[in-house]
Amino acid sequence: MDPIEQIKNYQPYNEQEERDQAEILRLLAEHQNLFNRSNGAAHMTASAWVINHDRTKVLMAYHNIYDSWSWMGGHADGDMDLHAVGRKEVLEESGLMQVNSLTEDIFSLEILTVDGHEKKGRYVSSHLHLNLTYLFEADEHDSLTCKPDENCDVAWFALDEAVQASSEPWFRERIYRKLNEKLSAWS
């Protein structure tokens, strides 16, 4: 499905999602290049909330840039299939060989602020990630490996522990807690 139509059809969970949905749609209507990093102010990204088969744990990576445990994900880089982007990022960042999609629908959406930082020896200015989150499942007993240029550890956490593991208060309260709440209501 066309990602813009998917965003339009998405039913927001709360006020944050409602406002972010409207802003993402406005930005997509006004800018041609949001699926590429060439737009330095804002661009599309996809994240993954990866749970175990029992739905009691979530897979997190310790991201080097953010110095925090967080979900996995990345830039669209021209790919309009953001679900596939989310899946690809999980495989790259976790070392998993298999991850299953629980739905191709958007699980969550959010606008994320990214502070300026160094990446591969170059400065990246502060910008926005217009993010779609997808829900995946993996076997918690499968082998994990980090992706050294992006993270230094990958591990499973109990759902509440995953929220607390993040050192980013806004993510803990506004994103990860929300994802767990949505998961408990998801069927």
Structural description of this entry:
The protein is an alpha+beta fold and 187 residues long. The chain has one domain: Nucleoside Triphosphate Pyrophosphohydrolase, CATH 3.90.79.10. Helices cover 32% and strands 31% of the residues. It has five helices and ten strands. Strands 1, 4, 5, 6 and 9 form a five-stranded mixed beta sheet that branches. Helix 4 packs antiparallel against helix 5 (169-185). The longest helix has 17 residues, at 169-185. It is globular, with a radius of gyration of 15 Å. The two termini are 22 Å apart.
Jot down its keywords:
187 residues; alpha+beta; Nucleoside Triphosphate Pyrophosphohydrolase; five-stranded mixed beta sheet; three-stranded antiparallel beta sheet; 10 strands; 31% strand; globular
Number of domains: 1
Low-confidence stretches: none
Cα end-to-end separation = 22 Å
* CATH homologous superfamily title: Nucleoside Triphosphate Pyrophosphohydrolase
Largest sheet at a glance? Answer: 5 strands, mixed
Q: Specify Rg, calculated over alpha carbons.
A: 15 Å
Please give the count of helices. 5
CATH architecture title: Alpha-Beta Complex
Judged by helices, strands and strand pairing, the structural class is alpha+beta
Instruction: Write down the CATH class.
Output: Alpha Beta
How many β-strands, per DSSP? 10
CATH-assigned fold name: Nucleoside Triphosphate Pyrophosphohydrolase
Strand content: 25-35%
As a percent range, the share of helical residues equals 25-40%
Mean pLDDT: 94
Sketch the topology as an H/E string, one letter per element. HHEEEEHEEEEEEHH
Shape: globular
